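The methods section describes the discrete structure representation at length, but only in general terms. An entry of this sort, consisting of the sequence and the corresponding backbone structure tokens, reads as follows:
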Amino acid sequence: MAALMLLGGCMTHQPTGIDASQTSGIDQWLTTANADTVVNAMAAKGMMPATIDCRFADSTQGQQAYVSKFTWRRAPTNTRYHWEVGDPTYLASKEVRANRIGLRRVFAKEVRDPASGQKVGCSIWAG
């Protein structure tokens, strides 16, 4: 949801549970819900993701769970951005949608789980 709000270029959400003043140095693996909260808090500070790292939290077939970690940079004026984590097919569909609305991929990473062979990717688009 928060990632969709970023596409609109408007952020008015004040996250709960994580103080916005504590998010500038976050260097920990975040669940999707926690990542949304951190991204919203950083957006309120005028920051956007510069890089994203991702990995499997659970690679059980049918119950994949991912975690992510970000580095940050000052967001240029009027820049819209969007980030996603998921399997390669899911990310490919998000790439098409991002390109349709004028966003271009600025960072991407793909990780393979050695035990299962499954892949997870993460991308950031901006424009």
Remarks:
- The longest strand covers residues 47-58.
